[in-house]
Amino acid sequence: MLNARRPKYADDDKLHEECAIVGVWNAVGAAKLAALGLHALQHRGQEASGIVSHDRSEGRFYSRKGRGHVERVFGSPERIEGLKGGGAIGHNRYATTGEDMTSNIQPMFAEFAFGGFAVAHNGNLTNALKIRHRLVAEGSIFQSSSDTEVIIHLIARSVRSTLAERVVDALTQMDGAYSLVALSPKKLIGVRDPMGVRPLALGRIVGQAVGGGDAYVLASESCAFDLLGAEFVRELNPGEMVVIDDNGITSLNPFPPAVPKPCIFEHIYFARPDSVIGGRSVYETRKLIGKELAEESHPANGADVVVPVPDSGVPAAIGYATEANVPFELGIIRSHYVGRTFIQPTQSIRDLGVRMKHSANGGVLKGKRVVLVDDSIVRGTTSAKIVDLVRRAGAAEVHMRISSPPTTNPCFYGIDTPDRSELLAARYSLDEMAKQIKADSLAFVSLDGLYRAMGEPTGRKTEQPQYCDACFTGEYPSRLVDQDEGLIGASSGLPIEQAAE
Amino acid sequence: MLNARRPKYADDDKLHEECAIVGVWNAVGAAKLAALGLHALQHRGQEASGIVSHDRSEGRFYSRKGRGHVERVFGSPERIEGLKGGGAIGHNRYATTGEDMTSNIQPMFAEFAFGGFAVAHNGNLTNALKIRHRLVAEGSIFQSSSDTEVIIHLIARSVRSTLAERVVDALTQMDGAYSLVALSPKKLIGVRDPMGVRPLALGRIVGQAVGGGDAYVLASESCAFDLLGAEFVRELNPGEMVVIDDNGITSLNPFPPAVPKPCIFEHIYFARPDSVIGGRSVYETRKLIGKELAEESHPANGADVVVPVPDSGVPAAIGYATEANVPFELGIIRSHYVGRTFIQPTQSIRDLGVRMKHSANGGVLKGKRVVLVDDSIVRGTTSAKIVDLVRRAGAAEVHMRISSPPTTNPCFYGIDTPDRSELLAARYSLDEMAKQIKADSLAFVSLDGLYRAMGEPTGRKTEQPQYCDACFTGEYPSRLVDQDEGLIGASSGLPIEQAAE
Amino acid sequence: MLNARRPKYADDDKLHEECAIVGVWNAVGAAKLAALGLHALQHRGQEASGIVSHDRSEGRFYSRKGRGHVERVFGSPERIEGLKGGGAIGHNRYATTGEDMTSNIQPMFAEFAFGGFAVAHNGNLTNALKIRHRLVAEGSIFQSSSDTEVIIHLIARSVRSTLAERVVDALTQMDGAYSLVALSPKKLIGVRDPMGVRPLALGRIVGQAVGGGDAYVLASESCAFDLLGAEFVRELNPGEMVVIDDNGITSLNPFPPAVPKPCIFEHIYFARPDSVIGGRSVYETRKLIGKELAEESHPANGADVVVPVPDSGVPAAIGYATEANVPFELGIIRSHYVGRTFIQPTQSIRDLGVRMKHSANGGVLKGKRVVLVDDSIVRGTTSAKIVDLVRRAGAAEVHMRISSPPTTNPCFYGIDTPDRSELLAARYSLDEMAKQIKADSLAFVSLDGLYRAMGEPTGRKTEQPQYCDACFTGEYPSRLVDQDEGLIGASSGLPIEQAAE
Amino acid sequence: MLNARRPKYADDDKLHEECAIVGVWNAVGAAKLAALGLHALQHRGQEASGIVSHDRSEGRFYSRKGRGHVERVFGSPERIEGLKGGGAIGHNRYATTGEDMTSNIQPMFAEFAFGGFAVAHNGNLTNALKIRHRLVAEGSIFQSSSDTEVIIHLIARSVRSTLAERVVDALTQMDGAYSLVALSPKKLIGVRDPMGVRPLALGRIVGQAVGGGDAYVLASESCAFDLLGAEFVRELNPGEMVVIDDNGITSLNPFPPAVPKPCIFEHIYFARPDSVIGGRSVYETRKLIGKELAEESHPANGADVVVPVPDSGVPAAIGYATEANVPFELGIIRSHYVGRTFIQPTQSIRDLGVRMKHSANGGVLKGKRVVLVDDSIVRGTTSAKIVDLVRRAGAAEVHMRISSPPTTNPCFYGIDTPDRSELLAARYSLDEMAKQIKADSLAFVSLDGLYRAMGEPTGRKTEQPQYCDACFTGEYPSRLVDQDEGLIGASSGLPIEQAAE
Asked: CB distance from A272 to chain D under 8 Å?
């Protein structure tokens, strides 16, 4: 019944991924730390945010959720202080799965016979609709159209006795990609799915624990730790569950082992450049991709300037410029006064969108042979506008270079991609694509070039690729039950909510 | 786990009851009619309102809920128009049961295997917590602390095949008082509990149906029909269920028969004077109570003026003044600019509260022997302030007359009463009460006088009273399971929500 | 250029007057007292409110203004506390003069060479536009379309040396009706115009002064004093100016003497019934008018019930019922959940307006000969709807009785009246009016009857009436310069403001 | 009486300038164009925005002003459409002069005897307070503490007959820096002060005029034109006034000639890099300054990376890295989710401020000799935090290089600078400054180096510098009347306003 992945923004030209999660255990000011973590991870979702905290002395949970940026939802000190206690989990939402409903904002909460718990997760489950249908038939009541609520129902209905066991019980039934945090009065749980598609990292704040000692934090990306004053301990392994409580941290591997398939697109575009994922600096990887790109496809006749499409194209452009020995220049200026390209759920001034975000820096472009570096092309509409912007500013030639292979397939693991029919690279040959975006030339990094930049000197292992690269190859590493059974596409039966002001 | 009936307003001096419901079937502009009905029933609950509508052509439900008056929640035309369709149910909330959470605002909604439905109810269930505990143990997830959600879970888990059968299945398990409306894509259902504690009336709007013909409405009180352009058809009988669909109205009596016990306090205070309840004009009844009061307890030395405590004391004061042949005067002026006495969930200017609502009309009071007529005394604090107000304006004597018997017991059927320990009449003798409120004399109408005013010439039938009058007698007409099993009083395990703006 | 008196509400049926003022001198919590005073005077204007305070220790003024009720504008304790100091003046606005602009909200403020001052006034100046044109030509800049700003400019341009002298200088140039309060760092000034058209009263709060001693308050009506804990000292005389400062109260009579012409309509409708104006209880006067009305025009065939149009018709109906010896009954129930009839600046649900405010109490009306008592008829549209409401509820006969003479002329002294062409009584004979509103009979109290009720046993003195009764007689007690010179009617040249939220 | 230049943000470390202006004449959708222009100039002021438009067919002005970003104030299509007409002027405010009052938001409006006009200006007047005192003494009433209101009063009081003549009359009396736009029903006027301190540019939108033909626009910087679809015509000359009306554009030079003194700091920091000012590309200039800096002061022992303090330090860092042949790296990542460094009027999370805006990109910094490039140092507090951030990320050495000379003097021409006593460079030697910010070395570009980068091969002309560089030299190019007469520093006598919601 749900429309899980309807593309939102007709003229956007990028992929984007849903959601960030954070968890804080036993820390003074846990909700404040969670809010800072969500701020640091704002790039992973800007539609809505929520925090649930638990205060042990009062034996109560506290909750605040709202639409908009973290700053808007939690922006006043009183709000944060009202979320009492030493345990907290938080979530930034980008609405891929489920519709735009307040009840979809995570974390979600449920009461148990033996207490309450809250859950937030990041990713996309590929059999959530099938399980939801079964649960509804058994009398479960859903308040939202979110995957997360499916997990919560499975936890609530589990006959196991501890929260950790129930979480395992629930997740064992789920296919797809997720990183998850769960908070009960007695523990914080973090889980990364067996394929490890989405990242999840563990940090420690020395001396910040309630009553002294160290507090622990979980976050989608390591870049969140610095703002919290936390040190980066390590990433969770694929399939690992950590249970953090008064006895410290317990690491479990409760799921059947699977071949790791971390999402390669986190490295290309989604993660913040100052994060470390899979042990690799995201910034460094992007520069290396730029280097590969320059080696593989520098214009035969040379170029005068290398210009990034800001901001996501900057590291690759630096790598490219260095390798090609061509000046790196800010030929496109990005406005500080709108959000990250295309991640906003409405686009009222459609034609002006690109120009409100990007303006041409004429002096750099006029009469020049320009290499434009961007991270990906999805529908191609934004790329065409950017090329037009640069050309109208006087560029003599515009060569578009993309720091990822052609995106030919939708993602079912949490990155919001349009239908295959809308993907430029699925519809056209390379030459046709160049024509569509009106570039003098167009090139993408090769799959092997990408893997080399990821530290795999021999490139992609064809029979068992080291990463999930389904968006470039169509090789999905798991079953796609909802997709295969045709469950995706109908709208939810839930009421269309008017927000209560 | 829930604190079902915690008294809210420490210095209030009145009882109040929770909630109003309306239902509209197959009418052009159903949500607008529901909003007008809620406006007309605003006196039954002012904390929050909600409407769920269903549009058949789109096959979708629509929902809007918010805190505050109906005017605030639904006040702009666009909002109402966004609630599309020909079917709608609505609710005004006064928070007796459950805490102040957005998720407690009715109507509530659930998906079925075969579609969705919404439910709103008015009253109080006396075994809701016991059933809730059982459902939680079985894996049901509660999003609110409301009784209504218990009903919805029972409906969802029922194995019967139609909504009407499932509603009966659910309600058969519930004790206590309720009037309920339920909306599915195919029908509107209205139910009054077997004792008929809370009112529910049926109306018809000639020619208003979608596609022509008559539309039907349900409302807590008949006074709502006039504003909707509806004609009053009849009240539902205790234990009656009406199912309204494309085939018209079907009346069912699906519950085991019970002795009717309509709430006598609706007649004394809560209902609007222009309503007809139990076939009786509320206004006329209140005048008759005033007449009984004058016969039973006019001051021996006479009086100069009869002054109502506005507005609820006015009809009884008119009856009293006529019977006693003493001039009726507006000795207390009520401000239009604050809500109904004590029905507001905060009271920040505590000391000024009474004076912001009531002011003494000095010319009428100065040097006079004043009979003050009010409808009830709960804690006595407001009465004391009113007597003081009148006395400071120069009254020579102040005789307080109350148009109900002494309130000695809390209500478990939906009227928000403080604990017995806070009820003035449960703690003091009549003389002591007069001293507490500093009146020269104090009298309450007798139980038999009250019943005579209700059209029972021989008064109250002791062995089987004609009404529920437990607040005056302690004779509760049903089991009080949650109360007897000690389930009432703890707070919910749900998070304390911060409203999202 | 200004459209001073455009009628706002096409289907309203009442007159209404603009504005209330309060002033507080040297009191602990001056702004809080001012806000309470404005709350008590809310009936005089509901469109907007403002308070300017002065804090002597900081040598600063503070200001808060906003649209809506006092409760909305000043509703939180922090807001009031932010208006520091011991001196404050406040204003409730009803928009007769000037357009609906934020900059029109009073009090208004100006800097002098020797300091700042704030002014608020109540009434209407009949040569304000002429003077405004002169000032603009001389280079004065107006930020609003309010009369008050004209006064402020005259004060600023005066060459006199003290604020009191400058105020006199300015007001001497003005025609029309006003009561005014002005606040400087060193004094509070109150002025009533030489004719004394609008009321202004002086009160004292014993022991409330900053540093001990008594604080003083000024208010449009005495009814405000009780809520402030103030005692009523006296009304200001027509043409009197009081200057309140550290030396106490000085009373001046700086204007040429004039024949007092207090507004008689304050007594009929506008003032709160518990106020004392001109030494007379407003409530008592209204009852006496009802008595005169019954004597003059009780239906020849008798009546079964006397029913007030609530709330303003209640006192006259009580007087009428007593005199006619017919039962007084609440045949029309007024909703608590909308503002005072027609005083709201928008009326979106035009057809529903009357029914949302008033509902028929059928039991009282059915089959009865009803005398309906109301205070005035302006356009007649509301009266027609009320008569219809009563008749549809089953009344056998409806006899409308009005506690004022026919309103045949617009007011130029601050009561918002439509053009003469819209006044029912200016267009029709008595019989025709009865037909228009579909009443079985219609009668107004006579002019002499009205004066008798005002304590003038011989009625109205024709050659020199004791009150301003121009709305009934067309005898305006002052020049109407702007009107006579055709300055009224064009819109202001100021921008049409969009409120900044 | 006014506190013209009180520093607002105690721990900020940058200069900032007030305000942007735009004007649009005879264009379809003038207000929309003005709003887009303000969006493009958002970097010049983020505290508040306003637009006044004029619609010729209705003969009315329209106005909208509000606090916050352009997007917030004008964000919905209905708001913009409500600002009707073909003429519009707009303003972004950054609050240097005047306090934080709604009435200070520009444009400001006044009525004339012959119509209305609106004015917005950018800059700072150095004798505004003196003139204001004179005007107040003559009876002018000020509603704001803004310089603009002084200009408006002078225009209103002028005895000249046309708006253009009156504007000249008024501006001739003013000292200091300003660019100004004024709108009347018949014309749009643009003026640049005789020294040309602030920029102002003219553009044309082909075919956009109401009724066909070309529309004209004025904007603080040329970067605004692209977004409006306008072509850049030229910059106004110092002392030039353009009058745009139905007869086209008239250029006047009504003021006594003066030596041009454009602000050099626009080029260093304030203007957008894609603007052209004084015929020079701002981006290119900044790169050249970086080049000069590298030549003058590259660390003797070499460096491993050049890292800009984003975003304002980026162009200079590129120039530096190229000249020094050291890799340019993004060692500091700037969050997209907060506004431009320190330009926000509150700073509640004081300690976290820098870290919420900037995070260290560890991989780039660890073990490296880092050259940090920033544009200026004001108080030094932010610089110290940035150095600390980089060092804690593992940098072996941190060499700070600044692309402006030491800031030793406050600006009186519109850039918000703290008192001299708070300027790091006014208090300490170069070595002491390096210690304060804990850098291993610190260097500023030389004055001559700066001038060379500005295209002056022989550097600064000592006797008659080509630019206003008073912030670096203390050589103010005009009288500082208010400053010299001690008028600056007291707070305004106007009330402290509470915003009305």
From this structure: yes
How many other CB atoms are there within 10 angstroms of residue C394's CB atom? 15
E-strand ranges in C282-402 read: 305-308, 332-334, 358-360, 369-374, 397-402
Q: What is the CATH number of domain D283-335+352-463?
A: 3.40.50.2020
D113 touching C (Cβ < 8 Å): yes
The contacts of residue D272 (CB under 8 Å, 6+ apart) are: A333, A359, D40, D41, D43, D221, D223, D282
CATH T-level assignment (fold) for domain C280-476: Rossmann fold (3.40.50)
Matching residue, tokens 């004081």: D350
Assess whether the region B16-261 and the region B280-468 belong to the same CATH fold: no
- Measured in whole angstroms, the distance separating CA B57 from the mean position of its chain's CA atoms is 35
On whether the CB atoms of residues A55 and A84 are closer than 8 A, the answer is yes
Residues paired with residue B468 on neighbouring β-strands, in sequence order: B263
Distance from C-alpha of A370 to C-alpha of A386, rounded to nearest angstrom: 12
Q: Which of A39, A315, A330 sits opposite D283 (nearest CB)?
A: A330
Helix (H) or strand (E) holding D219: strand D215-219
The confidence band for C95, taking pLDDT boundaries of 50, 70 and 90, is: low
DSSP for B101-153 reads -GGGPSPEEEEETTEEEEEEEEEEETTHHHHHHHHHHTT---SSS-HHHHHHH
Alpha-carbon distance A366 to nearest alpha carbon in chain D (angstroms): 12
The yes or no reply on domain B280-468 and CATH 3.40.50.300 is: no
Q: Which chains touch B (3 or more CB pairs under 8 A)?
A: A, C
Spans of all domains in chain A:
16-261, 283-338+348-476
Residue A104 DSSP one-character state: G
What 8-state DSSP symbol labels residue A256?
A: P
Span A283-338+348-476: which CATH code? 3.40.50.2020
* Residue B304 preceded by cis peptide, ω within 30: no
Write the pLDDT tens digit of every residue in B47-93: 899 999 999 999 999 999 988 888 888 877 788 889 999 999 999 98
Chain C residues whose CB is inside 8 A of the D498 CB are: 62-64, 79, 82-83
Instruction: Name residues 295-324 of chain A within 8 A of D (Cβ).
Output: 311, 314-315, 318, 322
Q: Which tokens hold the place of B146? A: 């409301």
- Who's near D383: CB < 8 A, 6+ residues apart? D13, D374, D377, D400, D437, D439
pLDDT value at residue D94: 78
Q: What residues contact B501, with CB distance under 8 A and at least 6 apart?
A: A66, A501
Q: Looking at the complex, does the CB of residue B68 fall below 8 Å from at least one CB of chain C?
A: no
Low-confidence ranges of chain A (pLDDT < 70): 1-18, 95-101, 114, 338-352, 489-492, 499-501
Residue of D nearest to C158 (CA): D139
| Residue bearing tokens 């803004």 | D146
**Bond before C107 cis per omega within 30 degrees:** yes
Q: Is C300 exposed, middle or buried (0-12, 13-18, 19+ CB in 10 A)?
A: exposed
Task: Enumerate the β-bridge partners of residue C51.
Answer: C64, C90
Q: Classify residue A230 by its DSSP letter.
A: P
Please write the tens of the pLDDT for every residue from A137-163: 999 999 888 888 999 999 999 999 899
Helix (H) or strand (E) holding D378: none
Instruction: Identify the residue whose tokens are 């039973």.
Output: B296
CATH of A16-261 among 3.90.226.10, 1.10.3720.10, 3.40.30.10, 3.60.20.10? 3.60.20.10
Number of C-alpha atoms within 13 angstroms, CB side, residue D203? 28
Rounded CA-CA distance A108/A21 in Å is: 12
Structure confidence at residue D119 (pLDDT): 96
Strand, coil or helix: what is A63?
strand
